[in-house]
Amino acid sequence: MESGSGGVGIDAATSSPPPWVVSQWSSSVSRRFQHLLDKSTPYMIGRWAAFMTLALVYGLRVYLIQGFYLVSYGLGIYILNLLIAFLSPQVDPEVQDLVDGPTLPTRGSDEFRPFVRRLPEFKFWYSVMKAFSIAFLMTFFVVFDVPVFWPILLFYWLMLFVLTMKRQIKHMIKYRYVPFSFGKQV
């Protein structure tokens, strides 16, 4: 049953708009959000400042509530996974060596090839922002506040971080790549 006013029809039985209206609205919101993301791309310092603010607010909330340690642990594991992808080359030299020989320069006289990350900086920032936003929203629901002994989780995460970074640094030394470049290389 639709209204006879000639406007957008609403089903009287369910009082909900037709599916095409919802689809059109979500498409419009998605386009606007993507436009804002595209405009924020060149402002790296501002984006990371926004992230630091969100991370500080999240940390402060968890500290003041004295809970949601399991959510924070899951967030830490996810961020560690993103960090490894951010520090890794797009083409892994170990796999590439097996296929067709080394791809990264091995001598100073080799041609300079810029480091290409497996996870670009903008996608790293966007993923971390989404993760912190979701974790922050989870702190408003008691069902996610699972009681755990947080020092064990912290110790386990620190050990995981140290071992993972040690392996990543050994990989960087073995294949002679640095994931950061300051200034213009020639």
Automatic annotation (TrEMBL):
One of its GO terms (biological process) is protein retention in ER lumen. It comes from Cinnamomum micranthum f. kanehirae. Belongs to the RER1 family. PANTHER family: PROTEIN RER1, PROTEIN RER1C. It is found in: Membrane. It comes from the Eukaryota. GO terms for cellular component: endoplasmic reticulum; Golgi membrane. Keywords: Membrane, Transmembrane, Transmembrane helix. Its main location: membrane. It is a multi-pass membrane protein. The chain crosses the membrane at residues 45-64, 70-88, 148-165. Involved in the retrieval of endoplasmic reticulum membrane proteins from the early Golgi compartment. This is Protein RER1.
